[in-house]
Amino acid sequence: MTALNSEDSPVYIRLRGGISAAILRGDYGAGDQLPSVRALAAEHGANPLTVAKAYQSFQDEGYVEVRRGVGMFVLPGAAERLRVAERDMFVNTQWPRIRDHIALLGLDAGELLEREAG
Question: How many helices (DSSP H) and strands (DSSP E) are in the chain?
């Protein structure tokens, strides 16, 4: 499992993050077909093997299924399970680093949240 990631992440991780975000936004719902490996590779200027690796991770984790000769499809419940996994990754991995960085810079988390809302 990987979190939605930044520009400094490897291509495979960025692709996986983009696909995760699309599923979480509802761009791809249960039963929807994901773009082909070649189409996604062309769209992102990535190697098809890198895209296949990202897709394989979704298959391994049970978010999608491959229908031979047809394509890859989002499984029922994938968005909900993916949201839980992404939340866990954020809370346990990303948030501690963000919290520590906020403290290091002497920022107030409450003021940051108010700034965003206003």
Answer: 6, 2
